[in-house]
Amino acid sequence: MTTSFAPLTVAIGDLVPHPANVRSNAPETYDPENIAHLKASIAVLGLLQPLLVQKIDGKYAVLAGGRRHAALKELVADKATKGFTAKTKVDCRLVPEDCDVTTALSLAENITQAPMNAIDEFEAFARMMEVDGQTPETIAKTFGTTVAAVKGRLRYGLIHPDIRAAARGKVITLDTMKAFAEHPSQEAQCEVFEALTKDGGYLQAYTVRQALKSRGVQVSDDIGAFVREDYEARGGAVAADLLEEHSVLEDAALVETILLEKLGAAAEEARIKLGFAWADAMVRYDYATMADYGRVYPGPNEPDEAAQKRIDEITAELEKLQLEMENEGLEDGAYNALYDRVDALEEEARDLQEAYSAEDLARSGVIASWSGGQITLHVGLVRPEDTVKEEGARGTSANPTGEEAPDAGEITYPASLAEDLKTERAMALGAAMALHPEATLDLTLFKLVSDVLASGMSVTQAIKIDARKEYRSHAKMDEIDETSLEQVAAAHDALDLSWLDDTRAPADQFAAFRALEAGEKAKLVAFATASTTQSCFARDRQRDNLMHAFEIEIMPDIRAHWTPNAALFNRFKKAWLLKILGEDLGLAQEAVTLASSSKKEIVAFCDKLFAEPFATLTDAQRAAVAAWCPPMMQTAGVACDEVELTADTPDPDGEVAQAA
Fold first, then answer.
1. Rounded distance, CA 15 to CA 54, Å?
2. How many CB atoms lie within 10 A of CB 626?
3. Is residue 439 part of a domain?
4. Nearest-angstrom CA–CA distance, 500 and 575
5. Which of 226, 276, 464, 571 is deepest in the core (most CB within 10 A)?
6. Of the candidates 224, 250, 226, which has an alpha carbon nearest to the alpha carbon of residue 238?
7. pTM for the whole structure
């Protein structure tokens, strides 16, 4: 049956919600933020579709059009909008009072409207600008959105018609179609589309974006922004986009030429300043190619009077900063700022006390590359033909001290990072001790008895048996892996603390403690001893034979209590992360692929890799990921004194100068 509803106009103030409206139980539908677009449209274009109303108790109840009604009320309340008051009349259609299908009418209005096709929306925005003479600003006002959002839709509506037709016919996906908007030239879009589809097959958005990159460089890309001024000065063509950041520098060869010139100039400046023999430039630092290069490092140098004065100033400031950092009331942001300042000062002090030898300067050089949105200088490199090869040794140069120089890209640890790694290792060891109560009880009792009865020095300094909990500080405590903390918490929850009642006298507590089962006592002693473990790297087999052997017994694998995560990787240099991936984990291809990525992207990759090793890994790679940790944190690793020296050695990439 077809029902006709009489048209009429009703004052906005006489409109009320209808109890049969199917959206009446979803008040969030009418929230101001959810009807902002509708409000803006009505303000500019008026009410395009009449409301469906029914007279109830002298008022007109809105049966269908509740969101339009809510938008009208918002316009009345908005004093900045002219032309809408409670007396303003709007078009409606009247449902008879005796109608018995009101709910069906409300439901039909809400569910029979098909959502607008995304491509239709994009093309409609484009037509509004091309045919109706609208601007992004007027369109934004009409639909209550931002100019940037309108320009984003317009860009998709201006993609080449053949590509839009392919998306409409589901030959390609909507996301793939959007990828073509990465280049504003329809000619370039069409050429890429034809090249990628000529052999058939499934076309992916990623493939499109990669292909369009060869057609130019976006001005928002770090390289595009870096060379744009010189590029335009040389008359390079720019394909303008509605969104400025998506405009493209079309002459990719000119972009690369200018970039290499700038890199070369930076390398030459560094060569002159540092006294190297040669300078070179490459867009991306090729780790595979550079593997054959050697590297020289600065050795100890007697500072002159000015340098010594600066070193003394740094020493005084570091002492002051250390005192400030001991303030327990310091907020995290302030503490981290102090921490970064300490790192910078320690690095400056190292640079003042180191220098390259004349022999090394005569055969080494500097290469400038583009990395992470800036120029990176790789200094002290020795070309393969200039590398001193020693019999039975790799083609690396010796450093000025006569000792074998570190491999290029060797990972060293600044003092601040080394101290934090010591803390994390102590936490892992504490967790292992709490999980091995019998062994830890034996260690504790042995320590107590030996310290009293044995002659000579104490058996071990690694634990304190003086009933004082070890305080552990860490710059990023809220970001580190929590495995050991969770294990210790679980061990604490399993303790029998029924004897520890503050209302009892110590003698009564002791009596209750003695009544515990031996296993419960062992857990208590182990937990208490675990809380005293001091921060340290791998034990020296000679200097602390007891703890060296004990750690191997209870913590053969630190990874059972600790997992590397972004908190650690963020403090590693990009070169270190690539070295770990390529050499330690056997992921050479991944390292090469990621070499052109930002450090942030590499950190995210490593974080995911260690959180849940990828299914595509080989057994060897999986085993390497499961076992990896910084060498000094391993149970049976280098000695403590060796690690301390490593922590103080120059950081290879500490010599890397960053220039904008």
1. 10
2. 13
3. yes
4. 52
5. 276
6. 250
7. 0.42
